[in-house]
């Protein structure tokens, strides 16, 4: 008799626990972005990867949490006053939003300076002096470059605008082993990309970064945030927020992808000349992010 009572009590406790879990509705998420194939793929992938306590909805009005892709969508979303996660958002914009008291965080556009320096060290083990180009809207603050301590000696190359870029490179490339570029749409447009890469070839100094597009155009290699990287990071951020009610600090993606321009890497006689070999080398060295 006591055994049956004990089993009944356990069953009641289990039912009560299950009932409590079922009675807690999933938090809803809406993705704001300009219409594009990338948005469609991002929303579909996000919906598939979210845990059971989170689900994507079509209307922002009924959402508990907003996800905004890009600066324009992030700016619009701030006006709605809901918890907000920016994805591929400029660092300056997200930091301004936090300072103004918005309940938000962002996955910044680009990758960390530390990631890009990993590439230089791995592909050019003998490199010592590396120039870092920075404009007014670049993702890395100048203080980060000035305060860097490590096996590479960094030289800050401030550039006011795209017109000054060519002169800055021509004046400095000869005494540097390589150049690292940040994500900066205002500074590094298509015309600037052509200028940078042509100057690099003429003076035989390799350029690293800032992203996949530049590597396809002639940069040696770059870490970059792929679409799947951004989805994975967003899922992790949303999971933590659903569990704790806190976003944590804004940051770059924690595990970016890597790409190498094989032709350019070969022309500079780089240590690694394809993306797979470079990724393996980083992982074996314990340096992969």
Short account of what is shown:
The protein is of the alpha/beta class and 289 residues long. The protein has twelve helices and eleven strands. The longest helix has 22 residues, at 2-23.
Structure description:
With 289 residues, the protein is of the alpha/beta class. The chain has two domains: 24-109 and 228-244, Rossmann fold; 113-220 and 261-284, Response regulator (Rossmann fold), CATH 3.40.50.2300. 46% of the residues lie in helices and 17% in strands. It has helices at 2-23, 37-49, 71-78, 91-99, 113-123, 142-146, 162-172, 190-203, 212-217, 227-244, 262-267, 275-284, and strands at 27-32, 54-56, 65-69, 84-89, 104-108, 129-134, 153-158, 178-180, 207-208, 221-224, 257-260. The strands form three sheets. The chain has a five-stranded parallel beta sheet, sandwiched between helices. A four-stranded parallel beta sheet has the order 7-6-8-9. Strand 1, helix 2 and strand 2 form a beta-alpha-beta unit. Helix 2 (37-49) crosses helix 10 and helix 7 packs parallel to helix 8.
Summary tags:
single chain; 289 residues; alpha/beta; Rossmann fold; 2 domains; 5-stranded parallel β-sheet; 4-stranded parallel β-sheet; 12 helices; 11 strands
Q: Strands of the largest sheet, in order across it?
A: 2-1-3-4-5
* Distance linking N and C termini: 59 Å
Order of helices and strands: HEHEEHEHEHEHEHEHEHEHEHH
Put simply, the count of helices is 12
Return the structural class. Answer: alpha/beta
Low-confidence stretches: 19-23
Helix percent reads 40-55%
The gyration radius over C-alpha positions equals 23 Å
CATH topology of the largest domain: Rossmann fold
Mean pLDDT: 89
Question: Biggest sheet, open or closed, and with what strands and sense?
Answer: 5 strands, parallel
Q: Can you count the beta strands?
A: 11
CATH class label of the largest domain: Alpha Beta
Question: What is the CATH superfamily label of the largest domain?
Answer: Response regulator
List the domain count as a whole number: 2
CATH architecture of the largest domain: 3-Layer(aba) Sandwich
Beta strand %: 15-25%
Shape: elongated
